[in-house]
């Protein structure tokens, strides 16, 4: 008698989850103006219409141009991550290839940040698109280009992406004389559109794969077109914003700033911990979910994470718009919750529904933390050192990521549980650092009133 084995259908999120995330983002965006208290909005009340040609009208045009370019760059980041082809390669060799990229970002990334400040962020933005153009060219001439070169190009492009567009926006914002509190709106919109563009890149990639036989809509051709279009757009629509300083004076001033300002160390730890945890999630979320032979639709789960990140970004203006002096308690809570979510995944076996929920909570915290840290950088880091400081703050994250890749992925000394616990510990330490920063600022404010 034959034995019939029932196949279990792959697990996928319920359709109402996507609807819930979309509705939540929509509600957060459109209910915010009606429920915000007076003075909470950073938008000036003098702007009577979208066609107002006053100060807000010029800011809106500037913001729109920047967000268009940033969304294209985010879309290319998502597409670039799909160029790597690791089929048929062992886990050790994959870890080694990614380690080469992390080492390149660790060694060259800080140098690119300093060059961005000295030569101007426009140069760094163009370099970002040139790196993606190079990856597209290699992918076009060879269906299986060197994964070493692709890994290095992708790592350097991601490193440049982390600071060049934000630095350019800040410099141009100040140059045009816009109000400082308007930056809060741009910060959360940046990361909201970044997450939305990453979702779009997944959908675009699926379309390109289906249309590959017609050779009309392929990833390399589409990404090349976007890169060339963006470079032309930069040269035509944006000013250079070059810094008139020598490399010697810059490094001397930057070294003095780093050695004499303890707040920068706090921000560096917080920045490094969130980027390290995001990198750890990127390499471990799929193996964690499919552990024990579970069959799932990974391509349907990842959009839930990005939707949660979008929702976290829309929450930001509810707490921070119109204020640049307090409310770091919310940021402390976000770091602590993100660390707790990672801790639960690291130390306790969970069903797949619980795992997906915990990862969604982590991404919602990430969506809130990233614009919050950008806001703090604006308060404590001079604009002329912004690119260098962001790139230097990512060096500890790249070093830690390289460490876990070599010991965990290649040598198999560290387990996935230990790597996640390491990331959770960094997030919780960052929560403590932000809390100390908040207490120190309150203490300074009280001393000022006593004078």
From TrEMBL:
<feature type="transmembrane region" description="Helical">
    <location>
        <begin position="300"/>
        <end position="319"/>
    </location>
</feature>
<feature type="transmembrane region" description="Helical">
    <location>
        <begin position="123"/>
        <end position="141"/>
    </location>
</feature>
<dbReference type="InterPro" id="IPR008509">
    <property type="entry name" value="MOT2/MFSD5"/>
</dbReference>
<protein>
    <submittedName>
        <fullName>Uncharacterized protein LOC120257643</fullName>
    </submittedName>
</protein>
<feature type="transmembrane region" description="Helical">
    <location>
        <begin position="263"/>
        <end position="285"/>
    </location>
</feature>
<feature type="transmembrane region" description="Helical">
    <location>
        <begin position="388"/>
        <end position="410"/>
    </location>
</feature>
<feature type="transmembrane region" description="Helical">
    <location>
        <begin position="331"/>
        <end position="349"/>
    </location>
</feature>
<feature type="transmembrane region" description="Helical">
    <location>
        <begin position="416"/>
        <end position="437"/>
    </location>
</feature>
<dbReference type="InterPro" id="IPR036259">
    <property type="entry name" value="MFS_trans_sf"/>
</dbReference>
<feature type="transmembrane region" description="Helical">
    <location>
        <begin position="147"/>
        <end position="165"/>
    </location>
</feature>
<feature type="transmembrane region" description="Helical">
    <location>
        <begin position="186"/>
        <end position="204"/>
    </location>
</feature>
<dbReference type="GO" id="GO:0015098">
    <property type="term" value="F:molybdate ion transmembrane transporter activity"/>
</dbReference>
<feature type="transmembrane region" description="Helical">
    <location>
        <begin position="355"/>
        <end position="376"/>
    </location>
</feature>
<dbReference type="GO" id="GO:0016020">
    <property type="term" value="C:membrane"/>
</dbReference>
<keyword id="KW-1133">Transmembrane helix</keyword>
<keyword id="KW-0812">Transmembrane</keyword>
<dbReference type="Pfam" id="PF05631">
    <property type="entry name" value="MFS_5"/>
</dbReference>
<keyword id="KW-0472">Membrane</keyword>
<feature type="transmembrane region" description="Helical">
    <location>
        <begin position="66"/>
        <end position="83"/>
    </location>
</feature>
<feature type="transmembrane region" description="Helical">
    <location>
        <begin position="95"/>
        <end position="116"/>
    </location>
</feature>
<feature type="transmembrane region" description="Helical">
    <location>
        <begin position="16"/>
        <end position="35"/>
    </location>
</feature>
């Amino acid at each position: 008698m034959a034995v019939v084995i029932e196949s279990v259908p792959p697990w996928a999120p319920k359709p109402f989850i996507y609807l819930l995330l979309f509705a939540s983002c929509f509600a957060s965006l459109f209910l915010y103006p009606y429920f915000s208290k007076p003075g909470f909005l950073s938008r000036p009340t003098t702007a009577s219409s979208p066609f107002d040609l006053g100060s807000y009208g010029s800011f809106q045009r500037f913001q729109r141009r920047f967000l268009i370019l940033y969304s294209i760059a985010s879309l290319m980041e998502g597409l670039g991550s799909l160029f790597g082809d690791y089929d048929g390669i062992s886990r050790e060799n994959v870890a080694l290839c990614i380690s080469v990229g992390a080492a390149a970002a660790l060694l060259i990334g800080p140098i690119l940040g300093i060059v961005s400040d000295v030569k101007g962020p426009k140069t760094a933005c163009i370099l970002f698109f040139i790196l993606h153009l190079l990856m597209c060219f290699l992918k076009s001439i060879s269906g299986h280009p060197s994964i070493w070169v692709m890994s290095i190009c992708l790592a350097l492009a991601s490193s440049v992406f982390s600071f060049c567009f934000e630095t350019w926006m800040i410099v141009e914002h100040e140059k045009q004389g816009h109000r400082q509190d308007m930056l809060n709106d741009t910060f959360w919109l940046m990361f909201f559109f970044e997450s939305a563009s990453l979702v779009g890149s997944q959908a675009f990639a699926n379309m390109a794969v289906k249309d590959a036989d017609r050779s009309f809509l392929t990833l390399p051709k589409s990404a090349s077109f976007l890169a060339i279009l963006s470079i032309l757009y930069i040269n035509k629509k944006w000013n250079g914003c070059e810094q008139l300083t020598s490399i010697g004076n810059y490094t001397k001033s930057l070294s003095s700033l780093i050695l004499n300002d303890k707040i920068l160390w706090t921000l560096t730890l917080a920045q490094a911990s969130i980027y390290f945890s995001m990198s750890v999630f990127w390499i471990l979320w799929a193996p964690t979910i499919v552990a024990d032979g579970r069959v799932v639709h990974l391509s349907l789960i990842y959009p839930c994470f990005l939707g949660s990140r979008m929702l976290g970004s829309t929450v930001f203006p509810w707490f921070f718009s119109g204020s640049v002096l307090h409310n770091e308690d919310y940021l402390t809570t976000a770091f602590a919750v993100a660390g707790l979510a990672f801790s639960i995944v690291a130390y306790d076996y969970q069903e797949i529904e619980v795992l997906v929920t915990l990862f969604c909570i982590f991404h919602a915290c990430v969506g809130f933390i990233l614009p919050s840290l950008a806001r703090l950088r604006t308060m404590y880091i001079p604009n002329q050192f912004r690119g260098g400081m962001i790139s230097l703050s990512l060096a500890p994250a790249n070093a830690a990521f390289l460490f876990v890749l070599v010991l965990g992925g290649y040598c198999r000394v560290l387990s996935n549980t230990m790597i996640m616990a390491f990331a959770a510990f960094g997030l919780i330490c960052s929560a403590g650092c932000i809390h100390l920063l908040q207490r120190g600022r309150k203490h300074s404010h009280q001393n000022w009133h006593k004078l």
